[in-house]
Write a sequence for this structure.
């Protein structure tokens, strides 16, 4: 589903991603961890071409992402992304936030988009909030709307960049619960997160990054019990 081969990326003279090789299968859940500034967000953003790679090959959902002729809108339709800050449209009701792209991009009739949108709101546990504005919701609820909005495009892949980092502690669980159920249903997911308990439980694989490199990739159980690389050991020991 996702294949990085010898991918490099520079921001000007700064070498942010170094020789990235990473292959993610359909239905796999990969959690990317590592220190701040290690390139996790950049890696994620390359997947839907919010950032361009400088060299190497990147294949996502059958597309060559670096191809000049990539039909970008068509390509992005199938990739949902959820950010730390929810980026909801403040002037639109929750349901309209969710139906906007399905109507405009997928061309769904309004009633069908609404029917599906309500189903996704139910799915994330906030059906009763359809007609309110984002500002009337808690952070955890807003993030669940953002997830429902991503799901409403019926994506092949969901990307999450620290989806719980901006939340009060008591709201983290409700967002992780939604992500956990998505993982169980077989969604292909790439998640940048500092929630190690969640990562250990939900990830098929952990990718540990440091200074623009993938330093270690391992099955979650192995990684947390016995990371192979010294840098990973140091990182984990600082969290405990
Ligand atoms: P992480 O998500 O792991 O914290 P990022 O991918 O956001 O790391 O950033 C990796 C490095 O690239 C950081 O040193 C950051 O300052 C730098 N960086 C990120 N975005 C840009 C940009 N648009 N221009 C220049 N440097 C950037
Ligand atoms: Mg980041």
């Amino acid at each position: 589903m996702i294949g990085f081969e010898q991918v490099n990326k520079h921001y000007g003279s700064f070498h942010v991603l170094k020789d990235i090789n990473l292959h993610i299968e359909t239905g796999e859940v990969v959690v990317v961890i590592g220190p701040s500034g290690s390139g996790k967000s950049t890696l994620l953003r390359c997947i839907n071409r919010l950032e361009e790679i400088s060299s190497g090959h990147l294949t996502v959902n059958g597309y060559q992402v670096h191809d000049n002729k990539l039909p970008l809108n068509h390509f992005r339709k199938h990739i949902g992304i959820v950010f730390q800050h929810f980026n909801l449209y403040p002037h639109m009701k929750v349901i309209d936030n969710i139906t906007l792209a399905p109507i405009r991009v997928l061309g769904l009739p309004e009633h069908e988009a609404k029917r599906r949108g309500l189903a996704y709101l139910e799915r994330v546990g906030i059906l009763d909030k359809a007609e309110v504005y984002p500002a009337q919701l808690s952070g955890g609820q807003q993030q669940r709307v953002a997830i429902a909005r991503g799901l409403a495009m019926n994506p092949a892949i969901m990307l999450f960049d620290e989806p719980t980092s901006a939340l009060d502690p008591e709201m983290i669980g409700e967002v992780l619960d939604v992500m956990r159920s998505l993982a169980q249903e077989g969604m292909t997911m790439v998640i940048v997160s500092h929630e190690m308990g969640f990562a250990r439980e939900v990830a098929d694989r952990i990718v540990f990054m440091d200074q623009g490199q993938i330093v270690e990739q391992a099955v979650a159980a192995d990684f947390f019990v016995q990371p192979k690389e010294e840098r990973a050991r140091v990182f984990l020991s600082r969290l405990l």
User: Anything to note?
Assistant: Residues 169-184 form the longest helix (16 residues). The pocket of adenosine-5'-diphosphate (ligand 1) is lined by residues 11, 14, 16, 34, 36-42 (CB under 6 Å). The longest strand covers residues 14-24.
